[in-house]
Fold this sequence. Notes:
Chain A is 40% helix and 16% strand. By secondary structure, chain A is of the alpha/beta class. In chain A, the strands form two sheets. In chain A, strands 1-7-6-5-4-2-3 form a seven-stranded mixed sheet, sandwiched between helices. In chain A, strands 8-9-11-10 form a four-stranded antiparallel sheet, with helices on one face.
Amino acid sequence: MSLAAEKTVYECRCELAEMFGAKNIENVVFTMNTTYALNMAIKSLLRPGDHVLISNIEHNSVLRPIIASDCDYDVFDSYGSTDKVLCDIRSKLTPRTRLLVCTHQSNICPIQNPVKSIGALCRHNGICFIVDGAQSAGICPINIKESGIDALCIAGHKGLFGIQGCGAVIFSDRFKGEMARKLRTFAEGGNGVDSLEGHMPALLPERLEAGTLPTPAIAGLLEGIRTVKKLGLNHIREHEQTLYRRLRERLCNDERIEVYCPHVNYGQTLLFNLKGISSVRVADYLDGEGVCVRAGFHCCPLGHKLLKTGRDGAVRVSFGAFNTLKEVDRFCDILSTMNKQ
Amino acid sequence: MANINNRCIIALPSVTYAMRSSELLTEYGILSKVVKLDSSLTKKGCANGIELDCRTSAKAKGILINHSIPVSE
């Protein structure tokens, strides 16, 4: 029975490794969620005295571990062309820069970091590169080898259709043998391997997996990944783009609504404010009409500062593969009724 | 590598490696079964491995080493 459960976990590792371009299945390490994945990746690679670069659209799951590490850090600007972003990163590199951590897709707006170009820059400068793929996994193609990513952190319950309760770090293939042994453990405990030893095992994934794995969530994630594969990544992405563009077009035509990043032509989320009405009030109104959005700062103070959303934050609309254009139109109609109140 | 009733055991660092090894050997036509090892077979406590026909074990071990899978003695 226990081996049957282990087989499910193993199959999920295989699917994740294949989806994100890792050759070594062992380099897929399960966590509770993306925040734990990012903490694990950051803390396993960072050393005292290191300098870190992060982007100005980072979630608190990146910002807070970096601040807590007491390492020096600088923030680069993600807003603009790839050349502009790379130029800003280069200007902030120091001889002590060991790590660059950035999100692939913002959790509040349509801004994406050019991870492939940033990865090449990191490789060239011998910097470890961690990517927060919470918003993009299952929607945008990500290949850790092609993008020079050392550790990709993902959520199980978003674009990959799992249930809440698991995430993963996918370490690049260079983390094997001695390189894996050098990864600092984030938590220690039992995992069914080398039980008589006082230290965590030297090899991945067990080196970083302490305690009981969230097997039910991993089983759900496995089925979720299979669903993504059936639907097709391109199909999901194109569908969400269609929804995004329709919503953007309709909201931009309403002068009482401020849409953030209205010029960006792609996205899975759209951020807006109804002028003069707090984001929480707008969200409450929509909730009463059966529409779920999220108001406030979305754990992303840097991004809200960049977009100058103000003291009430903003309303975020997120699209999913199963939303429809009809729902987008209904959303706009409901919003317009509030607009007139 | 232990020999029990003409069935040999190859000890591996974890259940993940055991499952990967078994899958890999199947591609080479070698059938094996993932097993939990007796504590007496290891020095470090709980461990997993694969059980297979002793006639195929040397070849299997070679395949695993060629694929950089750390095989325990």
